[in-house]
Each structure stands twice: as C-alpha cells, then as structure tokens.
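User: Just a sanity check before I run the rest of the batch. Below are the structure tokens for the first item. I only need the designed sequence back.
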C-alpha cells in the first residue's frame, strides 16, 4: 500500500507537468504549519529560478490543476507555497484501506531478505548487570521491527564463552579442588554429570580468579595455559566448560525471559572458533594478513581517512586470537549458514573503532560481499537519576535482575495503592506495566545518547512514558468492550477536527516505521505512538462515543479508535512489551 505522501506527491508532480513544469518540483511534505494546512509543496520556489518567472505564478498554475482532486483545499500563497488539505472522503478511504490491509498496508521492504541482529553479548559465568540492559532492549526491538518489515530475522546473543574467563575459572577451580577428576592426567571418564559448583558458587569463582590474576603472575600464566588447552580440546577442561555453559545458559534464559527478550540463535565465540584457521589461511593467501611486530594483522586504513584507523589484529604475538578474529570468523559462519542481506551489531558506542576495523576487514577480505549491509548500532550508557554512572549503594555494579525487581516492586506499590485492579490481577498487571516502564523509558531515548534512569518518571501514568501508552490502550479496550462487536465496522468520514487529527496521525504509521528501520532508531516508534496516544485521548475527551445517539456516527467513532488500538498494540509489540486488560 502506497504511503499517503507518495500518493499526494504523484498528484502534485502530475499537476506540475500539466501546468508545463518539470515533475521533479512536485515533492510534498507534511506541513510545518499545521494551523494553516496539512501538507505543503515548496517546489514553485525552486522552479522559479529555472523558468525565470515569479514563484506565485507557478504555484497558482499548479494549484489550478489540482482543484477537485481529493483535496478540500489547494491554495497558492505568497511567495509561492502550495498549501493542501485532504478531502474527508480521501482520508476516510485511505484509512479504510489501512484497516482492511494486512499489517495496515505497511510496505515490506525486507521481503526475501535475511537480517541477523547481534545483540546481548552476555558472558557466561558472569551475572547480567545493568550494562546488558540497553543492548538487549534495543536489539530485541530492532529484531522485531525487521521482522515486521518483512525480513527473515535471526537474533543472535553472541555469547562470550571462549575467552580468558574460562581459563580463569578452570585455574581457580584447580586451586580449590585439585583432586577433581577433570585435572587427573589420563582420566578415561566418564566425567560426572553434576557440576562441581552451583550457579552462586560459579558467580563467586570468576571475580575471585579475576582479582587473583592481577596480583599473582603465576596464576595469570596458569589461566592463560588453561584457556589455550581448553581451546585445543583438553577433555577435562571441555567437561568443565560444558558444566559452565549448562548452568549459565539456564540462568540467562530465565532473566532474558523476564525481559521478554528471545534469541533465535544461542551461539558464541566457541561456535566461530572452528572457522578461524581456514579464514586466516585465506586472508594470508590473498595478501591481506601480514606480520607486524610479531602479530598477524590486517591493515584496513584507507586513503582519505580523516582519523587513524589501526590495523585489525588477527593473531597476537603470543598466538592467541582476539575479539576481532572471532567476529570475522562469526561472519564467515553466518554467510555460509544464512547469506544475510544485513548484519546489525548492538553494543556500546565506545566499540565504534573496533567495528570500523572489523567491517573494513570483512569487505576487503571478501568475507562478506560489498552489498552486505554491516552496521554498528552503538548505544550510550544508562546513568543514575543524578546523571552519574549507575552504582549500587556499596559502589558496585547493579545486577540486571535487581534492577527488574526494583522496577517491579515500585510499580506494584502504585498498583496496590491506587487499587488499579483486583487482588488476583495485581502480579500480572504489575509485570506488564513494569516492563513497559523500563523498556519505553530506555527506547524513547535516541540509542546513541546517554540517559538517566528515574523510577518515578518512567513509571508515571502521565507524560511520555510506557504506562501512559498502556493506559491509552486499556481505555480504548474498555470502550470497545462496552460497545460490543466492532472488528468489521468500516471507517467513516471525520465529523470533527479531533477525529481528523487522529486519522491524519494514523496515516503516519508507515513512514514512522520506515524511518525507524532506516536509522535503527526505535525511539522514532516511541515518538509516533506518543503522538498517536495523544490524538486518541484528545478525541476521547472531545467526542461523545458511547453516548452518541446516531448509530452511524457511533460506528465510525468505534471503528476509528479500534484501528488506533490495533496500531498501538502492534507498535508496543515491536518495542517488546504488551498491555494488560485493565489499569
């Protein structure tokens, strides 16, 4: 289904041609003066220079060609603007098409294409903390947006499961329990099915080992050796690694489920490791991988670079592969398995240089095609309400699970205090409102910007918040429930300015989603639904809906708010939360 701006622009272009001017001047935009008109065209101002005549003369000639063509107003005003208002019938017909079309008629730009969204970046054996919130929330929203826009989408958590932290855990476990069979030379198995540690013990082992490494060179060396031996296939260390993975993944699944974040692929650095040797040999054969100060590097600097772009290190001087190596090998795996049209990486924006190096190496080395879209969606940090880095009272990093609990407890107190729902609905309703408050509070910010986390503001039922959006949806649900069957009712002509404003806002769904997709900015969806919710509430306050005595008028009102509800629900699903039935 064509966007309404495209339809109007085509009519405007035809009018320019009919008046004797080039069609290129017929671009229409949403008016920057909604008090004067709905849409405008400024092409006559530019055409005046080419045709050497007054812009108002061109605007008048074009406006004459448009009179009566789906516009209630088509007016040329000084110095040469063309102001437009859609006719009520055109607007109603367009919304009726949106109501009956699959997915509201939004154009599916991703049809036939695959997109892999790499987000989350959790490290096994380490608890998720608040630094994991933004990549999970932004990445999930971008994945759902791509899916809605027609892409075959694959969300990949890209676990950190193969680096030094594994060697540190093994070395620390060896110090504590050297008698375990995993460390016994020549042990023929089988290894125990039960792990020699619990999740809480595992989460204590790693920080202890990490701290010991800084003060004990011998221990650090032991951990490096253990990491190397694990990667070379040491059976006992592989058995420990399997225990770590099983226990850690179960906990990661639990917490991501609480966030309503779900991955199609639970792959990690270990899955990319087998692809590294052949990739390195291929890059050597092509002359891209060269030795520099004992390390194997891939020079990626280009003529014209405005800043220094260091070589991409593939193998360090001690023979170890690093993140860049793993990221490139992961691309090899993804191209073989899925041949994606695009790959998005959602991480901290401070990793911009790393991804610039990796993306250049991938294109130069032929790991991906020149047409493959590689994008780093770098995000800012979440700070405390005081604008300083978010810390616990004792100065530590707050665990993600605790943050979720704090938000849920805060919202629950509001739900109970205001008696929003019956006692048996408190927990389910609280969970939905808390998640909406948390996710919308994050996603309404531009991804690259830092923001301050504020429980009170995010959980407010008024203003630009998730609970406000939910409240609007619940209000519409209540009206529709009291009315009865509404799903098949057609859109009618607008009967007042508030209805027309709501209808015009609904038409902007497609452009909002396309802009969010093009710029990888879920905040544009938040901005759209905040505007839509505002238009719904203005319409509600200024229009008698359930008390309207004219059945035809009432049907039109019900159909209009029903369409708004469906769009709001679709958008919050893309953002990663849902609305309760009552609030």
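Assistant: Here's the designed sequence for the first item:
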């Amino acid at each position: 289904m064509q966007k309404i701006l495209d339809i109007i622009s085509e009519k405007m272009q035809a009018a320019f041609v009919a008046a004797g001017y080039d069609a290129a001047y017929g671009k229409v935009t949403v008016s920057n003066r909604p008090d004067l008109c709905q849409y405008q065209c400024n092409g006559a101002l530019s055409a005046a220079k080419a045709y050497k005549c007054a812009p108002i003369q061109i605007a008048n000639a074009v406006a004459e060609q448009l009179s009566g063509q789906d516009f209630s107003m088509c007016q040329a005003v000084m110095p040469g603007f063309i102001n437009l208002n859609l006719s009520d019938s055109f607007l109603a017909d367009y919304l009726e098409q949106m109501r009956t079309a699959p997915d509201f008629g939004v154009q599916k730009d991703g049809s036939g294409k695959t997109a892999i969204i790499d987000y989350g970046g959790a490290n096994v054996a380490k608890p998720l903390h608040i630094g994991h919130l933004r990549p999970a929330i932004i990445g999930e929203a971008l994945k759902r947006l791509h899916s809605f826009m027609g892409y075959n989408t694959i969300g990949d958590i890209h676990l950190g499961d193969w680096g030094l932290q594994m060697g540190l855990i093994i070395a620390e476990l060896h110090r504590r329990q050297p008698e375990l069979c995993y460390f016994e030379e020549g042990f023929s198995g089988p290894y125990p099915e039960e792990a020699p540690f619990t999740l809480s013990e595992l989460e204590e082992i790693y920080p202890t080992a990490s701290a010991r490494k800084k003060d004990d060179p011998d221990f650090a060396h032991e951990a490096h050796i253990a990491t190397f031996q694990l990667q070379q296939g040491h059976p006992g260390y592989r058995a420990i690694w399997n225990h770590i993975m099983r226990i850690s993944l179960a906990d990661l699944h639990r917490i991501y489920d609480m966030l309503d974040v779900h991955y199609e692929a639970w792959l990690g650095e270990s899955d990319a490791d087998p692809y590294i040797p052949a990739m390195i040999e291929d890059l050597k054969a092509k002359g891209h991988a060269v030795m520099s100060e004992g390390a194997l590097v891939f020079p990626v600097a280009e003529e014209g670079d405005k800043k220094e772009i260091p070589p991409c290190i593939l193998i360090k001087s001690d023979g170890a592969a690093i993140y860049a190596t793993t990221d490139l090998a992961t691309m090899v795996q993804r191209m073989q398995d899925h041949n994606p049209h695009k790959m998005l990486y959602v991480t901290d924006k401070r990793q911009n240089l790393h991804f610039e190096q990796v993306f250049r190496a991938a294109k130069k080395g032929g790991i991906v095609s020149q047409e493959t879209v590689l994008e780093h969606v770098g995000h800012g940090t979440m700070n405390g309400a005081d604008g300083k880095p978010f810390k616990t009272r004792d100065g530590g990093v707050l665990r993600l699970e605790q943050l979720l609990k704090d938000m849920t407890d805060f919202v629950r107190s509001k739900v109970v205090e205001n008696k929003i729902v019956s006692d048996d609905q408190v927990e389910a309703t609280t969970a939905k409102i808390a998640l909406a408050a948390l996710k919308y509070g994050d996603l309404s910010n531009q991804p690259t910007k830092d923001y301050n986390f504020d429980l009170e503001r995010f959980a407010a039922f008024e203003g630009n918040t998730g609970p406000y959006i939910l409240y609007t949806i619940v209000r519409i649900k209540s009206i529709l429930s009291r009315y009865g069957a509404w799903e098949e009712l057609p859109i009618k002509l607008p009967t007042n300015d508030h209805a027309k404003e709501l209808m015009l806002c609904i038409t902007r769904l497609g452009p909002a989603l396309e802009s969010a997709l093009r710029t990888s900015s879920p905040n544009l969806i938040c901005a759209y639904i905040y505007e839509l919710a505002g238009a719904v509430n203005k319409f509600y306050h200024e229009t008698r809906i359930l008390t309207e005595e004219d059945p035809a008028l009432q049907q039109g009102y019900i159909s209009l708010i029903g369409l708004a509800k469906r769009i709001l629900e679709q958008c919050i699903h893309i953002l990663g939360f849902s609305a309760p039935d009552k609030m």
